[in-house]
Amino acid sequence: MAGFDKRVDSYEAALAGLTDNMTVIAGGFGLCGIPENLIAQIRRMGVKGLTVVSNNCGVDDFGLGILLKDRQIKKMIASYVGENAEFERQLLSGELEVELTPQGTLAEKIRAGGAGIPAFFTATGYGTPVGENKEVREFNGRKYILEPSITADFAIVKGWKADWYGNVVYRHTAQNFNPAAATAGRITVVEVEEIVEPGQLEPSQIHTPGIYVDRLIQGNFEKRIEKRTTRAA
After folding, report:
1. Which of 98, 113, 122, 227 has its CA at 20 to 30 Å from residue 5's CA atom?
2. What InterPro entries does this protein map onto (predicted)?
3. Which domains are seen in the chain, by residue range?
């Protein structure tokens, strides 16, 4: 059974082998479902020149934003800048290479990469700067552009529960990009709120099968809210 046990006992072990100039896919949307402790470990490691693939880049002082602040990210592949003023500043100043990608296309690039599909055609972006210098084909009278898929050296993922074997359950909207990201890393590392013994998870409720997961760690999470909107009592 030891060979199927994906648990590691430290964040150092969880990200062992991550080095400069690698590509990392990070799950999450805004600050929802982000692997915050794995991101913090990358900061502590001090690796540089990273290409990071994520829907956005956290906020200035939390999530992937802390890696931007420390100049550890060379290139961001994302769908929007979000609430991150430092991301905007580095983009506009030319300090950071940015590949802005339509959100659905980004999700499919990651999903297709994890499925072993090297590229796909999509109508999204045709006739815009997104489609410049990309192959165009026509299907049923409509133009489509060829988009390459994305894989990474490491995928870092946040789950809710997992068993020892790395079968993962996500909670509500924290699924977002996490299930796709988990499939697209050469090494996939998942941090969760709770690890249970094998047999404790209902098989029909598992979102990411353990076959995709290489390392698993249980962490404590701040789960910060990006923007809170309330109404008067």
Report:
1. 113
2. 3-oxoacid_CoA-transf_A, CoA_trans_fam_I, CoA_transf_BS, NagB/RpiA_transferase-like
3. 19-100+151-218 (3.40.1080.10)
